[in-house]
Write a structure and sequence with these properties.
By secondary structure, the chain is an alpha+beta fold. It is built from four helices and five strands.
Amino acid sequence: MTFEEIRDRFEEDAGKFNGLDATVKFDFKEDGFIILDASSSTPSISTEDESTDCTIAISLSNFEKLATGKLDPIMAFTLGKLKIQGSMGIAMKLTALMED
């Protein structure tokens, strides 16, 4: 899965993040950032680096494994394949929304 494919998927699914009431940065390091702004009633997606309530650092390959169910988010966190800065509560809420 490429960065562009992941960004497009977030844009298509932005509505499912209604009610998150937070901003989240997906930090793919040298591949770029995806910012999910679900702090308002209409969630939006951006690729501009900015401060957020929660940052999730993960490689593109591990994100693809998470998205396809081949990697459990708790296991990824425990093994250091996924790192979280900021609100753990937002990250947990986000995980539940992404599984729907």
